[in-house]
Amino acid sequence: MVSTASFVIPLLALWIWWPISSLTGTSRLARLLAALVTTALGIFPALLLYAVQTNALPYSLIAQLQVPGGWVLATLLMLAVFVVLRDLLWLLAALSGRQGVAQLIHIPAITVGALVVAGGLSAIGVFNALQPPRVIEQPLVVRHLPPALEGLRIAVLADIHASPVNDARYVKTIVDRTMGAAPDLIVLPGDLVDGDAASGRAHVAPLARLSARYGVWAAPGNHEYYSGYNSWMAEFRSLGLNLLENRMQVINIKGSKLALSGIGDPVYGRTSPNNANPNVPEGIPPDVDAVAKQARKAGAQFHILLAHQPKFARLNATKGVNLQISGHTHGGLIAGLDQWVVAPVNNGFVRGEYEIGNMKLFVSSGAGLWAGFAVRLGVLPRIEVLTLTAEK
């Protein structure tokens, strides 16, 4: 990450502030200085990520520094879009012989103005990302729903990312609002935490107050693997969360058997400085075949799968799963860029509902956000309360 950033960011910085060679004196020096400052700011977030991976600094400090680092990344992302559009216009003007227009497009005031706008929008995005989520009630129409499950209300708390940024007060607000909605079932499909368990347990402590008629169930996400899987699973158990690690649980609802399962995350095999042995991976690989077999053997009438990453939903749909609930994408983070950046790396799944054969996929927008890119524009955090409804 640091190596890539060290190569890409200087090129982007030079591109933002070009032309340089055609200038003289003070103007050239000013743009070179601007490019150097842009480069230094751009590499800063990558250095923070390296510090996380190596435990070079306490996570309590790193997490706080990651928030402005995310602001820098979002600003550079918007500037990258700007320079592409700017230089396409410049090229069109140059090719059409309108040299005056071409020179006007590259005046410093336009680039500085774009920098101010991008920085301002990113700041708004950071503010949005740091706000606790609101409860959003919505119906979810699914196929083959047993009559006994009609109207079942499921609260989805995805991607809380409890940390020194999303701290105990933030998590308490999530718990209070969820309990106020009085759901029948509460599911947490991964990425509950960031950072090591020893320093982070106080931030997740409010989750112990979650309760629902049919239980509170959690499956691991990729950040549990990054943060010390075994220690966090032990902490979650102490809070009373029911863990679904490649495991299925039958829940009897009005005489109908609901299979609720959860699987491991595809990042299995990654090591973490927070593991008992930092060089040995912890956790489990995802095994949808195992939970599908357990559900069939139990004679379940309906199967809900908690799978943190939505990207393998098409495969899971072939295993007899009726409803998959996922997170991971944070809803795409920035409306407009979500389809360009987030969708391609998640096989097209970003947020909301998707029909995949006989299976419904629901991708949560997330109740929190990773401190490393705490930016939301047009995609606010949510506690989604889904009311299951049979397809007519």
List keywords for this structure.
12 helices, 392 residues, six-stranded mixed sheet, alpha/beta, single chain
Put the structure in a nutshell.
The protein has 392 residues and is of the alpha/beta class. The protein is built from twelve helices and twelve strands. The chain is 43% helix and 17% strand.
Explain this structure.
This protein is an alpha/beta fold and 392 residues long. It has 12 helices and 12 strands. The strands form 2 sheets. A 6-stranded mixed beta sheet has the order 1-12-2-3-4-5. It has a 6-stranded mixed beta sheet with strand order 6-7-8-9-11-10. The model has no long low-confidence stretch (mean pLDDT 92).
Q: In percent, how helical is the residue content?
A: 40-55%
Main structural class: alpha/beta
- How many β-strand stretches? 12
Q: What's the shape? A: globular
**Biggest sheet, open or closed, and with what strands and sense?**
6 strands, mixed
Order of helices and strands: HHHHHEEHEHEHHEEEHEHEHEEE
What's the Cα radius of gyration? 24 Å
Main sheet: which strands, in order across? 1-12-2-3-4-5
Low-confidence stretches: none
Termini separation comes to: 49 Å
Strand proportion: 15-25%
Mean pLDDT: 92
The total count of helices amounts to: 12
